[in-house]
Design a protein that fits this description.
heterodimer; A: 253 residues; mainly alpha; B: six-stranded mixed sheet; four-stranded antiparallel sheet; 10 helices; 14 strands; elongated
Chain lengths: 253, 306
């Protein structure tokens, strides 16, 4: 294992993150605060408790998931797309490192950034709502797995993307709607029966539900199914990445 | 000299069907400077890209210091440094950071003293904390070289290292290349500039349309392929080649007689020609010779091949 290479990629990616720390930090804090003001205070004050939890607190796990998923995906996608775009990928490809090490470096950095932002949002939410986390270890495990699996997805998108438009396409057109429709701001049980069934096809439901269970002990789907879902998603992403590197898809001709 | 890079029957067909390399065989000797000359699209960059691991070969094998580039890619690649043709650097990174990054990427622990030495050698030490986008084009090219040298490679590939570089900087680069050779690094450079090959290479390889046309010692190549011209200026510039000299391969250029001969021939015919000139009563004012350049040799080779 070429640990120096993993470290080099990881540190280089993290430095990029810290070069734009104000933007990386302020943007999620600001948007989370806006969500709390709009959903938590303005609309939430007219909504009774959901599953025994105040509405303001109820949306916290969903809000964290929304940001973590989009940030993990776009950070990882950009992280590998940028060297492809400016041509510096040549160095990574010509270095004595395996594809696994490349992934650990890039995906590890993207997941770290997303985790950092997720924790910042969690911290911000304490300013707006009273929050007690019932299962903190499960919460951290879920957060870590989400950061990791969506960074893997982002990595795939970054390899696949041929231009900046495609880079933004999936985070904007797929992930954001799935998160909004995945029970981030409401309980699935609040939907009409037909929509409850349709919603079950949305993979994000399982993540938000499991994550919420870690906070409040209530969920739309059993926690084990949520864990299986995210583990399955992670494995699927790993399998695709394995194929990409085996074939050299969009990297090596 | 033992071979440090061995290329056997290497072919590359791109997805679109373009055949970039056709059964290339080449041995690069340890410690030499080999210049690969060839027109655009000849296959130079494809060849380098395969050796360095950026492009997969369609068939054939390459080994670097005895390590196969596919089965022992770690051992093979750790011997290689690559300076790409295009200036590809992350614009917002600091010079020292990008060089340290390269060293780490090649599996080497940080070595501040070595990085300082390399940056000093390339006159970059003063600018080590500058961001890449603050540097001039020439400086960026040096950064690329510093990155390639950061992990102490034994083989260095320079893909068109002086394209778009001014004359002064080009000479500086040549000095750097010679210093590296003195340190025992094997250097393979591709170039459009024949004068570059002529100035620094030990051997010259000519590649065209995916095939290596020849690889020869530079001096030997120039002697072997070289045709020499004898220029004879006469007291009275002739208007035509005198009748009595018609048996010689002579032409008139700017009022002087030009005699072309082969340096490798058993007899060059110079003595006889000069005697004939004297017999014809022609008085010579000046005599000079000129050897054809590598450029002319190259053009002849490529034209013959196509």
């Amino acid at each position: 294992m070429n640990f120096y290479a993993i470290k080099a990629i990881y540190i280089s990616e993290m430095k990029r993150f810290f070069r734009t720390i104000a933007q990386s930090f302020i943007s999620p804090v600001l948007s989370t605060s806006l969500y709390f003001v709009v959903f938590g205070t303005a609309i939430g004050s007219r909504i009774n408790e959901v599953d025994g939890v105040s509405y303001g607190a109820f949306i916290v796990p969903g809000l964290i998931m929304l940001t973590v998923m989009t940030q993990a995906t776009s950070n990882a996608a950009f992280g590998i797309y940028f060297p492809k775009f400016i041509g510096t990928i040549y160095e990574v490809l010509s270095a004595p490192i395996s594809f696994l090490e490349i992934i650990i470096g890039y995906v590890g950095a993207a997941a770290t950034k997303a985790l950092f932002i997720g924790l910042v949002i969690l911290g911000t939410s304490y300013f707006f709502v009273d929050l007690t986390i019932l299962h903190p270890l499960t919460m951290i495990a879920f957060l870590l797995l989400t950061c990791l699996s969506f960074s893997l997805l982002g990595f795939i998108i970054g390899i696949w993307a041929g231009n900046f438009e495609q880079l933004q396409l999936i985070p904007l057109l797929v992930i954001t709607p799935l998160v909004f429709l995945g029970g981030s701001f409401y309980s699935i049980s609040m939907l009409p029966p037909i929509w409850q069934t349709i919603t079950m096809f949305n993979p994000v439901v399982y993540l938000v539900s499991g994550f919420r269970w870690a906070f409040f002990g209530v969920s739309d789907v059993p926690i084990t199914i949520s864990l299986l879902a995210i583990a399955g998603f992670t494995l699927a992403c790993l399998a695709i990445i394995g194929w990409i590197f085996k074939t050299g898809y969009k990297i090596k001709n | 000299m033992p071979a440090i890079v061995t290329i056997r029957d290497l072919s590359k067909v791109y997805d679109g069907g373009f055949e970039a390399l056709k059964h290339v065989n080449l041995e690069i000797e340890a410690g030499e400077i080999l210049a690969l000359l060839g027109p655009n699209g000849a296959g130079k960059t494809t060849l380098i890209s395969i050796i360095c691991g950026m492009v997969n070969a369609s068939s054939g094998a390459v080994s670097v210091a005895g390590h196969d580039i596919v089965t022992s890619f770690r051992a093979a690649r750790s011997q290689i440094g690559l300076v790409p043709q295009e200036i590809t650097l992350e614009p917002f990174e600091k010079v020292i950071d990008t060089v340290n990054f390269s060293r780490g990427l090649f599996g080497k622990p940080a070595d501040d003293a070595l990085v300082e030495k390399i940056l000093c050698q390339l006159s970059l030490w003063e600018r080590r904390d500058a961001r890449v986008n603050e540097l001039s084009g020439g400086m960026k090219r040096r950064v690329l070289i510093a990155k390639a040298l950061s992990h102490e490679p034994r083989v260095l590939f320079l893909d068109e290292p002086t394209a778009g570089v001014d004359v002064e900087l080009r000479k500086d680069m040549w000095d750097v290349v010679r210093e590296l050779q003195a340190d025992g690094v094997t250097i393979i450079l591709t170039t459009h500039y024949i004068e570059e090959a002529e100035a620094i290479a030990d051997r010259v390889g000519v590649i065209n349309a995916g095939s290596i046309l020849l690889v020869k010692d530079k001096a030997e190549l120039m002697t072997q392929m070289g045709r020499k011209e004898l220029r004879i200026e006469l007291q009275v510039p002739p208007e035509a080649v005198p009748e009595s000299l018609s048996s010689y391969d002579l032409r008139i250029e700017d009022g002087a007689l030009i005699y072309t001969y082969d340096t490798n021939a058993e007899r060059t015919g110079i003595t006889k020609l000069l005697a004939a000139l004297s017999d014809a009563g022609l008085v010579m004012k000046d005599v000079s010779t000129r050897q054809s350049s590598l450029e002319e040799i190259f053009v002849t080779l490529v034209e013959d091949a196509s």
